[in-house]
Amino acid sequence: MLILIAFNFYQPIGVYSRLVTIIMMVTVMAALILNRIVLYFVFQWMMLHHGLGQSRTAVLGGGPLAEQVCRSLLRHPEHGMRPIGLILGRPGAEPPVLPGEVPVLGTADNLEALLLAHRVDE
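^ that's the sequence the OP posted. Answer follows.
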């Protein structure tokens, strides 16, 4: 738009009238805003329904706080984190009761091996 305005300003006889320039400016701005809004909702839909853009997350711990974190992440996929499992802090700890989609991966004793084996992002 700035190039068009500068071009129009330096022409001896205006190629476009000021009204056309203003209409084009408003149209371009409206199209950019609408484009951003549409893309935002498309990406949100893709993230919610297809799991795109979500990081594979392991929750370390086995107490009520770990259960609360897992349930919160399952309820809010728009945060971009998908819990893939629990890693218990100590051997023999009682794992929380969670939906079947969040299994116990192991204990923190072999943390590095678990993170590599399950391709954990966070």
